[in-house]
Structure formats: structure tokens, C-alpha cells
Amino acid sequence: MSIGERLKYLRKKHKYSQIELGLKIGIDHSGISKLESGKRPVDHNELIAFCNFYRVSADYLLGIKKDEEIENTESFPESEWTEEEQIAAEAFVIQLRKLRSHNKK
């Protein structure tokens, strides 16, 4: 299974549309589509974002390990944020990425 297929599998397993997932991790839905279909590679920052979001190892996403469970879950503690705080933080990250992208131009 390719990295794109694993990303699509995880998105469907967690019942997210490409738009919903994109909003949560700050990637445009067309970018999600291209990643899942293998039309563009996953960059380092995106790999980390997907690993953290789905709580899987990079070894799993890269196809090195077949088991999606991570061995040491202490590095991914359960969030103590309220849903409202999580939404606000996600919106902040999206805006920050847009600013960063704009400044690169």
C-alpha cells in the first residue's frame, strides 16, 4: 500500500471528507486529493502533521511497518483542550500557514 493509499484509508476510517481533513490539518482539499492519489509527494511537515493527527508512526505511513498503532503512546497525550479551544487552535494554525505561504512569495 502506498503512502497515498494509507492516507486515504485513515481518512475514511476516521470518517472525514477531504475538505474536513484539510481544514483540520491546514491543507487544501485539492492537496489532500493529490496526496492520496500520489500526484504529489508528502513533504516533511505534512508527514509530521498526518502522524500527529492520526496518531500513527511515520514508519506506518511510509510503509515500513504494517501496524498502524504506535508503540509508545506517551508522546501523544490525550488533549485536555475543550472542543472550542481545539477549533480555535486549528483556525489559528490555518491562518499562520496562509501567512507563511504568502510571505514566501
Automatic annotation (TrEMBL):
Lineage: Bacteria, Bacillati, Bacillota, Bacilli, Bacillales
PROSITE patterns recorded: HTH_CROC1 (PS50943)
Keyword Zinc set for record: no
Domain named HTH cro/C1-type: residues: 7-61
Annotated Pfam families: HTH_3
Keywords: DNA-binding
SUPFAM superfamilies according to UniProt: lambda repressor-like DNA-binding domains (SSF47413)
PANTHER family: HTH-TYPE TRANSCRIPTIONAL REGULATOR XRE, TRACRIPTIONAL REGULATORY PROTEIN-RELATED-RELATED
InterPro entries: Cro/C1-type_HTH, Lambda_DNA-bd_dom_sf
Protein known as: Transcriptional regulator with XRE-family HTH domain
